[in-house]
Each structure stands twice: as structure tokens, then as C-alpha cells.
Amino acid sequence: MRKRGIALVLAAGLLVFLAGCGGRIKDGTGNREETTAVSATTKTEAGGVSSEEAKEDGAEAETDITKAILEEKKGTVAVTYVKSPLNVPSIVEKDQAIFAEKFGELGYGVEYSDLTTGPEQTQALASGDIQFLYAVGATSVILAASNEADIKIISTYSRSPEAFKLFGTDDSVKSPEDLRGKKVAGPKGTILHELLVAYLASGGMTEGDIEFMSMGIPDAQAALAGGSVDAALLAGPTAYNMEKDGFTVITDGTGLTEATIVVAASGEYIDGHPEEVKAFLAAQKQVLDTIDSDLEAAMEITAKETELTTEAVKEMYPMYDFDMTIRDSDIEAMKKTVAFMKDNGMIEHDVDVEALIWRME
After folding, report:
1. 109-113 and 164-168: which strand pairing?
2. Paired strand residues for 87
């Protein structure tokens, strides 16, 4: 009993030492928290410590110490956290700390990046600031690859053409021609941008026939609501709320884009960290299994994070296909996107979609 007590005191002391040397240890959300040494003993009603309680607390202290040492050694894995359009897997993953669990087993902490636009994400990937783009438009990946970026697709995130929409203030826009000379706001180099160009092309027009204003979804929403633009490209909860507020949907992505969203990493990172990539894919599958096992809970978690009602989330959810498998149809859709982007001057060089796909051996 005395030996256990000494061991527990030493364990607590080592935790304090690690906190003093390292300062802070990353938790599963990417935040940094002061390491706290907690007493490993629990008093019984009689004022003593039971051997079972000491054993359990000692094991817990040992686990915490091991985790701290490993994280000090390996550092963190950075992953993008993108909620829009309605990225239920990302929201559930973060809530359940599934990445933290999987990467913790390999000795890593996890931190989340708030970069949400395609260009920002692919640039951060290229610089090594982010290891995994968990939800990036295939359009953005193709654009990066066309500029000779080192980027690979490791899985599919979703397909949701109905969730991407072009809004107007009223029903005056009946065809692409009605947008000629008008101001249209939205995020450049994204699936929404592809939707706009495809819609214009369906009427024999190009982006040069309108005044395109590049801005993120929140700013585009505000611009449309404030009347400073004539149309805006919106998705997810923002689109849902604007539609409920009476703004007109000019078109959605159906028949214009497959709205393929993927998961990507750099080729260099994949080659140097195959076990980490496997851990990520295992975590992605666990997230989907978690959603399937309790869909109601997933809807409630998503509603809270997006500030929508649970009923609204349930209404929108069927628009999304979150199967992570890279299907032949996904590859064909991306090949069509490459041709489309080149024909419309969005990229200068061809991109070999097959070469972009990384497959686990």
C-alpha cells in the first residue's frame, strides 16, 4: 500500500514537471490547456484509500503521463474544420473527439484550422501548416493541382448538388441572360463558383458578362440582404435561412455540378506518414459509423453547432451523401469538372484526376 502511495506521488510529480517544462499540452480540440496534477487518491468514508481506487487512479495517471510524453515527442496534427454547407461528419467528429482518440494512440495531439475557403486551405496544405483538408471542394483541389501543387485525394467527403444555390432578391432572374451586367457575390475557386460559371454557360454567357465579387458566404449573404449585390452564391444553413426569409433560389447545383467534396493531404506527407493517413481514414469511418448508430443524436449535435433547429437539420440532411468511398462516378465527375474549368478559363493546364487519387496498399 505504501509503495502504491509513493508511486502515485511520483506520478503526480512527473505531471507537474511536464507542465513546468512544456508549459502546455494540446487537448483534443487543438486548444492548449495547463496540465494539472490531480491527486491519485480518493478517500473512503472512513478517511482511507481503497487499494482498488488507488490502482485505478494510478493507471489513469500513468495513461496521462504516457500521452503527455508522446505528444511532447510528436506534436500535433492539424485538420480543417469546415461546418458549411452542412458538414455533419465534421461537426460530430469534433463533438465526439474522434480524431483526438485515433491520433492520440499514435502520440499526437489534434488542432483544428478555421480556414474554410479552397484557396486558403490548399495554400496551408502546401506550406505544411495543415496536414489534412477534411472537406475541400474538388474544384479547389483541381485548381491547386493545375498550379502544380503537391496534393492528393485520400477519400470522398460528400456529394450534395442540391445544397449549393444561387440566390436573388426576387424572382426577376428567369435565365442567365437576366444576370448580364449584374453584381454576383460568392467564394472564388469553389464549387459555388463552378455552379455560377456553369449556370452562365447554360445561357451562352461567361463570367465576363457579369460583375463577379469574390467574398465568403457570410459576406455574400450580408451583401445580398443589404441590396449591394443582385445575386449571391450560398450553401448550407445560410442558404436554408435565406430561403426561409423569402429570398429567391435562382438555381441549385443539380445538373450543373456534382458538388463533390473530398479529403486531401500532400503527397509528401502521405509518403512520410502512412500510418497517420491510415489512422485518419479509420477515424473518418468511425465518424460515419457513429452517425449511423445514432442519427437522432447526430442531428441534435449538428443543430446546436449550426444554430438551426433539429427539424431544419433533418430537412436538409437528405441532400447529402457522406459515403467516403471514392467511386468511379466521383472520378468521372471530377474529370468533367477539369474539362469544364479549362474550357471556361478557370485553369490553364490539364489535370490527371486518376493521378490525384491516393489508394491504400
Report:
1. unpaired
2. none
- Give the integer Cα–Cα distance in Å for 140 and 188: 9
pLDDT band of residue 353 (cuts 50, 70, 90) is very high
Give bridge partners of residue 134 from the DSSP assignment. 263
Place of cell 445544397: 163
CB 195 within 8 A of CB 164: yes
Question: Taking Cα atoms as reference points, which of 361, 205, 209 lies closest to residue 277?
Answer: 361
Q: Tell me, what's the pLDDT at 360?
A: 81
Exposed, middle or buried, 209 (CB in 10 Å: 0-12/13-18/19+)?
A: middle
Tell me the pLDDT tens digit for each residue of 56-114.
555 555 555 545 544 455 799 999 999 989 999 999 999 999 999 999 999 999 999 98
Query: Measured between alpha carbons, how far is 126 from 82 in angstroms, rounded to an integer?
Result: 18
3-state SS record for the chain = CHHHHHHHHHHHHHHHHHHHHHCCEECCCCCEECCCCCCCCCECCCCCECHHHHHHHHHHHHHHHHHHHHHHHHCEEEEECCCCCCCHHHHHHHHHCHHHHHHHCCCCEEEEECCCCHHHHHHHHHHCCCCEEEEEEHHHHHHHHHCCCCCEEEEEEEECHHHEEEEECCCCCCCHHHHCCCEEEECCCCHHHHHHHHHHHCCCCCHHHCEEEECCHHHHHHHHHHCCCCEEEEEHHHHHHHHHCCCEEEEECCCCCCCEEEEEECHHHHHHCHHHHHHHHHHHHHHHHHHHHCHHHHHHHHHHHHCCCHHHHHHHHHHCECCCCCCHHHHHHHHHHHHHHHHCCCCCCCCCHHHHECCCC
Instruction: Locate 235 and state its grid cell.
Output: 450553401
> Torsion over CA of 121, 315, 94 and 235, rounded to 10 degrees?
20
Predicted TM-score of the model (pTM): 0.76
CB of 86 within 8 A of CB of 163? yes
